[in-house]
Design goal:
This protein has 180 residues and is α+β, with helices and mostly antiparallel strands. The chain contains 3 helices and 10 strands, in the order ββαββαβαβββββ.
């Protein structure tokens, strides 16, 4: 994974090519972030996470947004309508997609270093690209972000996971606003 200028985590180059499109998933997500980030900020919201993936029903661009007090259906609709127009004009792909805009929900994705500090003390699930101590999937109490790594307490054992090796990180059954 790499970080973009806004510290939103994106997956490494995995092709999302159509018949004639050379775009990678990373390129598509970078382009989406260029439009979605400032749009969310102008509406008083935070762009939490962007996903672009192929699913059974076709390609999905999934945007997670948040704001103090939580997002409403109206917030999601507002961002969806504006972002849809922007992407229709500026996203140069040869494939159709569905745009989904939602709140992060109880399994809130974490992708920015500051997310790992904001949600200290919460249970988190992390998947890595390379095995750490023989495993790639971890569930434990989030201790925070230190020196480029995330620290988890997994069954009373501290596990240090390099940020660059995290492919997916989500809170587990997070219920409510961040108290930080």
């Amino acid at each position: 994974m790499k970080e973009d200028k806004r510290n939103i985590k994106v997956k490494k180059s995995e092709p999302v090519t159509g018949l004639f499109s050379p775009a990678t998933r990373e390129d598509v997500i970078d382009k989406i972030i260029q439009f979605a980030g400032p749009l969310c900020e102008s509406e008083g919201m935070e762009l939490v996470h962007v996903e672009c993936q192929r699913e059974t029903g076709g390609r999905i661009i999934r945007i997670y947004i948040d704001k103090p007090g939580g997002v409403t259906l109206n917030d999601c609709t507002l961002i969806s309508r504006q972002l849809s127009d922007m992407l229709d004009v500026n996203l140069d792909t040869n494939w159709a997609y569905s745009l989904e805009v939602s709140s992060p929900g109880i399994d809130r994705p974490l992708g920015k270093p500051e997310d790992f500090d904001s949600f200290k003390g919460k249970t988190e699930i992390i998947r890595t690209s390379v095995p750490i101590e023989g495993q790639k999937n971890f569930k434990g109490l989030l201790l925070g972000f230190y020196d480029g790594s995330v620290k988890l307490d997994v069954n009373d054992k501290i596990v240090t996971i390099p940020f660059r090796d995290i492919t997916k990180a989500r809170l587990f059954n997070y219920n409510g606003e961040n108290e930080c």
